[in-house]
Amino acid sequence: MSTAAERLRAADLRATTPRIAVLDVLDLARDTHEHLAALDVHARIARQSGPVSLQAVYDCLDALERAELVRRIQPAGMPAHFESRVGDNHHHVVCRSCGRTDDIDCVTGAAPCVHPASTGGFVIEQAEITFWGICPDCAAEAKARATGVERPAAT
Asked: pTM surpassing 0.85?
């Protein structure tokens, strides 16, 4: 994968320090399969690079989304989350308990991977599916509570 600065320039965006920082944070989150809200991106940049305004983070995320360098997902009832996994066809699964969001690859590959019975005249470009359930950690915690067994604290 090319550097954040190279990807920004290839998308005809200036490679500013805040944009590079936002893209770097989302790239690291991609490696750990995380989807981050703007507040999370802001907090990580502050810890890693120093102060940047929350408004600058929002502006960067907006520009990066328009340039198709990041993807915004917004499951119902949750704030928007962002990821740098773009250019492929995948969906998401969201934990109803803790909000953890993971990627699910589309089984057919090409967008759109599902086809509606009727399009109402629309030209369908993409299908975005969100699966809802309980993540393994929350399921184990619920099982432990139900059986009265306490799980050890994560370190």
From this structure: no
